[in-house]
Design goal:
Double Stranded RNA Binding Domain, 3 domains, alpha+beta
């Protein structure tokens, strides 16, 4: 604001009707007097401290942290301060004084993406649902179904899909694997409620020969992706990539490629909800779809069909 001077050349404070020996003394008066709410940088006096604070918070001339009333020399310093001392919401970028405020905000404003137990935000609803349905939040109460095949495995799982995946992976002491699971389901689903009437696929599941064994070599290295890739999975648009041959070999010899002649487009299973239309290569994938998706009410049809 324009300074006013008396006839002696002394700066004066018109509000207080006082004269000062120099501008520095007047500045000190503005800073220390309870009668003024002065912004030194802009040389402006405000009607109240609240008005001055609003000016600091909203003016591009100031790099001001509203959470701790601190000024910074530049916006980079302000951003560094906010990242180091405060908590920012990854979903809406709103800033909070600390993790407690951020947690309450996330719990109330982003409940569909935020796990309150883990204090973790997810990128979308599917990721949140998958997390909430994981073993972290679902007690292991589903027994291994190998008893249906004469097995005596005592392991328990957080979901039916996890129990089926355990069988398909060949890790069950009963000796079950993906092909045996497929044969069992096909033998019970005579009317194709959950299986596709595809005789070519059924032929694969009836094959009693040992599952193929694969061994990756350096030829599987992709210079384009700088990683090893699976030649049995679809090459585009997103090829399956691995950091080393050990990881690739584990994938190649998993239940994913248990059928030597089966193309990746072949999907034996289908959702019993005919309005859905989803199809799946693995029985565990079908069960997971029913457990976690909008077709949940159809799960009982699967259980009735296979007798689990």
């Amino acid at each position: 604001m324009p300074r006013q001077y008396n006839h002696y050349g002394e700066p004066i404070c018109e509000d207080c009707n006082r004269a000062f020996v120099n501008d520095r003394a007047l500045d000190q008066h503005y800073l220390s007097s309870s009668c003024h709410s002065w912004c030194q940088q802009c040389d402006r006096d405000f009607v109240s401290d609240a008005a001055r604070r609003s000016h600091w918070a909203n003016s591009s001339l100031h790099d001001f942290c509203t959470l701790c009333d601190s000024h910074f020399d530049c916006w980079q310093d302000l951003e560094d301060h906010e990242d180091e001392e405060h908590s920012r919401c990854s979903e809406c970028s709103q800033l909070f004084a600390g993790p407690v405020g951020l947690h309450e905000h996330s719990r109330q404003s982003h409940a569909r993406l935020y796990c309150t137990d883990c204090r973790r935000m997810f990128r979308n609803q599917n990721e949140w649902t998958g997390h909430r349905n994981s073993s972290l939040h679902r007690p292991a109460t589903v027994p291994c179904p190998s008893i249906k095949f004469g097995g005596n495995c005592t392991r328990k799982f957080g979901s039916i899909a996890d129990a089926v995946l355990h069988l398909e992976a060949g890790t069950c002491s009963s000796g079950m694997d993906r092909r045996k699971v497929d044969r069992y389901v096909l033998s019970h689903d005579r009317t194709n409620i959950i299986t596709n009437p595809n005789q070519r696929l059924i032929g694969y599941t009836q094959d009693n020969s040992p599952p193929p064994r694969y061994h990756a070599t350096s030829e599987a290295w992709s210079h384009r992706y700088q990683a090893y890739y699976c030649v049995l999975c679809p090459p585009a648009p997103n090829p399956r990539l691995f950091k080393n041959t050990s990881a690739l070999n584990q994938h190649l010899n998993s239940s994913k490629h248990v059928y030597a002649n089966q193309g990746n487009a072949d999907k034996l299973y289908r959702c019993p909800n005919r309005d859905c239309g989803h199809q799946f290569a693995l029985f565990s994938a079908l069960v997971q779809h029913l457990e976690r998706g909008s077709c949940f009410q159809q799960l009982y049809r699967v259980q009735q069909t296979i007798g689990w």
